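Fold sample X.
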Amino acid sequence: MLNHFKWLAVVMPVLTAGCIGINSSSSPKDTFTLPRSYQEVYKLATLQALQCWGNDGEFPIKGQLDTATRTAQVAVTGGLGGSRYGQVDIRALDDQNSEITTTVAGLNIWDTPALAAMRAALQFGVSTCTDYIPSAQPAKKS
């Protein structure tokens, strides 16, 4: 009987891998605009995703740049190419400004801090897996 449980412990993550990923209604999401062209945002998002979301090639990073619609997308998928764990959608507002929506699955390295790190990387042009920029919070009264 114990061998059956060991087998299930190995097989269940594989079987549920297609069920885990971005959920349009509940996954953490961040939408913002930046004074950067959509092509530049795409390059920065791709670099950030490769460095922080790809886990040394274990999770494929896919990108798409559409010059006709002036949009782009960067996504990380499961090792078998199934579910998406992180996605950056980019839309040109004009030649120098873009709207960006980053969505993550909300688990492991694809969580709320990953949203902040992606925003910081796109805003400051420096790829880092952790957001080191302090957020504006009111000072605590003594």
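Fold sample Y, listed below.
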Amino acid sequence: MKSFQRSILLFAFLMVTLFVAGCTSSTPQTVPLMTTQVPTTTASPGNALASMTEYPNITGVWISDDEAGYYLNTTIQPVAIGKNTWIFTSQHGHIAEGYKVFKQPDGTYANQTMAGIFDPDGKSVYMIDQPGGWAKGTIVSPDTMFLVLTHTGGKDTGGNAFAMTMTFHRQKSQ
């Protein structure tokens, strides 16, 4: 019971202190407004964000060079990747959609959906595929993309974590 009485006394003391200090007064006070003009500046081209019309169009068929990668399990093992075909079927501003086709370790072919999002720099595109692999592509030229792909493991990598680099070239329409 004593702690309850102490709590009540402490609360009453705080309330009296607030009333005496004037923190609860209802008298409005005038606060001056800042009217300083902020000068406008223009960002330099290196810092300017790309607008939706400035993202490169990556739709089309992209085929990689014959590349290599690495499995990581209890050891690091080099592995031949072979050619990959990535098809970007549509693009809406900074978002691209499509699928990729490649040969799996067991000899069968995989067909996986993927989506990519451009960084505001207009050159970097971050992608994720259907089973959860992540890739970062860099547009080197209108028809060349350098790509780094990582995967934590699964059927496509024989259960191993995986990392690789690939250089893709857009195929010209016939």
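Sample Y note: Confidence is low (pLDDT under 50) at residues 43-48.
Also: The domain at 55-170 is CATH 2.40.128.420 (Lipocalin).
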